[in-house]
Amino acid sequence: MILKNLITVSAFTALLFATSAFIHQNKEQKTSQSQASENNGFAVLELFTSEGCSSCPPADELMGKIEKEYKDEPVYLLSYHVDYWNRLGWKDRFSSSENSQRQQQYSRILNSQVYTPQLVVNGKTEFVGSDENNIKNAIQKALFASKKTNVELSATVSQNAVNVQYKASSTDPQNILLINFIEKHSSTQVGKGENEGRHLHHWQIVHKQNPITLTKQQEGSTTFKLPEGFSPENWEVIAFIQNRRTGEISGSAKTAFK
Questions:
Q1: What is the pTM of this model?
Q2: Which of 17-26, 44-53, 75-84, 221-230 has the lowest mean pLDDT?
């Protein structure tokens, strides 16, 4: 009888401890989320990728995964398709020399090699684009940043163009506002090169990036030409403020279309 009572008490104590631990964990999670919200942190992830690179598909897939996991948080995703892989047999239809030049700029600022897939977080740290653990740790760290420069965006669609209205509260003469026209998802059947025969999926593809010099105008508008087959629900605009000298991104925002 005594043994039975001891077992009952032990089971109850274990259940009580487990319940208490669960409540404590939930409380910690809510506190963590609240602190992140109060700090107003954000994370801008810039992936440099190519359809001609056999190491890139896992990084592209990770972008899609992160988009789903962080859809309710201030995490902004941009994929730049570089053009230097095109000479190896497959021309990436999303690639551009401007994207390759942007990666070269990061190479100078961060003192890093130029490679794919490469991912840069908030213009300050770079990782192999498929390194999920380090990238997610960098996201969480960025979300707890306490300083954010305000950026306001809105976008409307006219007959031939997307019109973007912006307002940015930045006084640093080194800062520029980069406004990006982004396709949320697309795919390609690759016919040649390292990924020959593969059907590749891409997320958050940068089609065009318009730079705005904030020392001249902190409020205004810019336009993007409508692509063929444009569908508003599959496109968005992301803008962020970046220091031209250090590469650091100090604020970001995104908008759908009205």
A1: 0.85
A2: 17-26
